[in-house]
Specification:
Ribosomal Protein S5, domain 2; alpha+beta; Ribosomal Protein S8, Chain: A, domain 1; Heat Shock Protein 90; six-stranded mixed beta sheet; 615 residues
Length: 615
């Protein structure tokens, strides 16, 4: 029997290794930017096309590579930061020319152009699918330029799994932001499809945040600083009133390396307890410096996950430091038992002088006499105001209602609100219903009782109405008297670009678009103007993290997201007319049993089931 175990060819092994390191164009961007930083660059330029699928180029002014290093950087297991096994636990750099370049060269067209300051000519190196051409001399400036073209050109299956250029560019932008935030002392620029999107000068951290996320961030930042024996904290957190439903403004850096840590994120959320609206997340830019031997950064190929030696201590320090910053800058209410508020002078009285009060006393005044000091008769009895009876008109209880109660008393005395216009109820038959715990609607049917989840029912109704809008050439819209201007971060603006056509198909109409803002001039008739900002925030949050959702089209996906965002929430009181309309609208839908998210909408409690529960 023939032997079955063989060594893989080198190009196949490189392609397999590339699958661990290169998942999408953003992975290439991360590796090339980190290489440029370790090369001592003071200025780094990133150029992409078609979301990185066609071109990714990183140009730096670092110290370049020698001809020998240029040839070695694309070899497997080539590295500049590890000499022995112990170095794995004392890594201070991100990796200079090597490691990932061999994997990238195996699945793309790679071109490296580099020159040291001491050399008169540079070196040009080309690799296509792992096949290296002979290096040649070339005229180039000091530094290194690495171009990656046609990613996954020799692995069609991997290339087909890439998303649209807009989605891939969003991931590229996220990596660019992470690297730029970690190194504010380095100048960065970003060009996409021949357009300049960012030109970031070397500055401090606060200015770098403002340059990346807009000038509005300047007033939202709260400094964070703490130093202990095990941890040095720095950076900024955002004020709780600016927390958003969408994720993307949360950044952890450990030793200038971006990481993801649900455990430390929980510490942040715990520190904000009681200050955030439901389902919102605050922004933060937290930098931690810890000893290199207390962390392990090699537990994940992308090095975005780190294993800490003492996570519990870091959790407690981080939580305490954030609470202290929120209290120190009067963001979080605090109790100061040593401060006497009675000694405070109101602001409007700070420039006024002290005035001695004047008191006039009638020494001959006698409250028991009808004659005053001046002689004429005075009456000191307080007269009742005229017309007092009118204050109590209409409060008489109708005859027969005193002491009586309704047969069904399940709603609280909180005033209920109507979801629908009264005109929409004309011609609707009266149906008995009541609200249970402000989550369910209970109504009678022939076989017993029908229990309806009000949120899921409303989602189904809205979903089918939004789908109906998709079938119209011009969906119904309500023009706004004053256009709305919504501000977004660059990453959020990319998500809006991805949703743009679907939003227009639903009835949104837009005016001018800028780098970080969007003007809305018309809305779908089902969406109130007061909820637009929160609605778009929720849409951005859900659109980013539902790439793998099974939907029929982009329009169908938008209809689901809008239905989820606009539908009434559990805990919302509904009056009788709203309940009646929701029931009739639900059973006028094509599908009445399941919500757009495959959740059961209603169930029937038969008379037999009710009798069994009472046995």
């Amino acid at each position: 029997m023939a032997d079955r175990i063989e060594l893989l060819p080198e190009h196949v092994a490189n392609q397999i290794a590339a699958g661990e390191v290169v998942q999408r164009p953003a992975s290439v961007v991360k590796e090339l930017l980190e290489n440029a930083i370790d090369a001592g660059a003071g200025r780094v330029r990133l150029i992409t096309k078609d979301g990185g699928k066609t071109l990714i180029q990183v140009v730096d002014d670092g110290f370049g590579m020698s001809p020998a290093d240029a040839g070695m950087c694309i070899q497997r297991h080539a590295t500049s930061k590890i000499r022995k096994a112990e170095d794995l636990f004392h890594i201070r750099t991100k990796g200079f020319r090597g490691e990932a370049l061999a994997s990238i060269a195996a699945i793309a067209h790679l071109e490296v152009l580099t020159r040291r300051d001491t050399d008169s000519l540079g070196i040009r190196l080309k690799v296509a699918g792992g096949k290296k051409e002979a290096p040649e001399e070339a005229v180039c400036p000091r530094g290194t330029s690495v171009s990656v073209k046609n990613l996954f050109f020799n692995i069609p299956a991997r290339r087909n799994f890439l998303k649209s250029p807009k989605v891939e560019y969003r991931h590229v932008l996220e990596e660019f932001q992470r690297v730029a935030l970690a190194h504010p002392d380095i100048a960065f620029s970003l060009f996409h499809n021949d357009s300049e999107l960012f030109q970031l000068p070397a500055s401090n951290l606060r200015k770098r945040i403002v340059h990346l996320f807009g000038t509005r961030m300047n007033n939202r930042l709260v400094p964070l600083e703490e130093e202990t024996q095990v941890l040095q904290l720095g950076g900024f957190i955002c004020k709780p009133e600016f927390a958003k439903k969408s994720r993307g403004g949360q950044f952890f850096f450990v030793n200038s390396r971006f990481i993801k840590s649900p455990y430390l994120h929980h510490a942040v959320m715990n520190a904000y307890e009681g200050l955030l609206k439901p389902d919102t997340v605050p922004g933060y830019f937290i930098f931690m410096q810890v000893p290199e031997d207390s962390i392990d950064i090699n537990i994940h190929p992308t090095k975005t996950e780190i294993k800490f030696e003492d996570e519990q201590s870091l959790y407690a320090i981080l939580r305490s430091a954030i609470k202290h910053s929120l209290g120190q800058f009067n963001i979080r209410p605090v109790l100061d038992f040593e401060h006497d508020q009675n000694l405070e002078t109101p602001y409007e009285y700070k420039d006024r002088g002290a005035v001695m009060p004047e008191v006039t006393v009638d020494r001959n005044f006698n409250p028991f006499s009808d004659t005053g000091s001046s002689g004429p008769t005075k009456t000191y009895k307080k007269a009742l105001p005229g017309g007092w009876e009118a204050l109590y008109e209409g409060l008489e209880a109708p005859a027969g209602e005193v002491g009586e109660q309704s047969e069904w008393v399940v709603e609280s005395d909180v005033r209920t609100a109507s979801l629908f216009e009264p005109d929409s109820l004309k011609g609707v038959n009266d149906v008995f219903s009541l609200q249970v715990d402000r989550k369910f609607i209970l109504t009678r049917v022939k076989s017993g009782l029908l229990l309806i989840d009000q949120q899921r029912a409303h989602q189904r109704v809205l979903y089918e109405k939004f789908l109906e809008n998709l079938s119209l050439s011009e969906p119904a819209s309500q023009t706004l008297l004053f256009p709305l201007r919504c501000e977004f971060s660059p990453g959020e603006m990319q998500v809006v670009e991805e949703m743009f056509e679907s939003l227009q198909a639903m009835g949104f109409r837009f005016g001018g678009r800028k780098k970080s803002s969007l003007e809305i001039i018309a809305l779908p008739v089902l969406i109130p103007e007061s909820e637009v900002a929160g609605l778009l925030d929720g849409l951005i949050a859900r659109w980013q993290y539902q790439d793998g959702e099974m939907v029929y089209s982009e329009g169908d996906r938008m209809a689901r997201l809008l239905a989820r965002s606009v539908a009434t929430r559990p805990g919302t009181p509904l009056d009788a007319l709203s309940r009646q309309t929701l029931i009739n609208d639900l059973f006028a839908c094509r599908e009445t049993q399941w919500s757009p998210f495959n959740k059961k909408i209603h169930t029937t409690l038969s008379v037999e089931e009710l009798e069994k529960k009472l046995d």
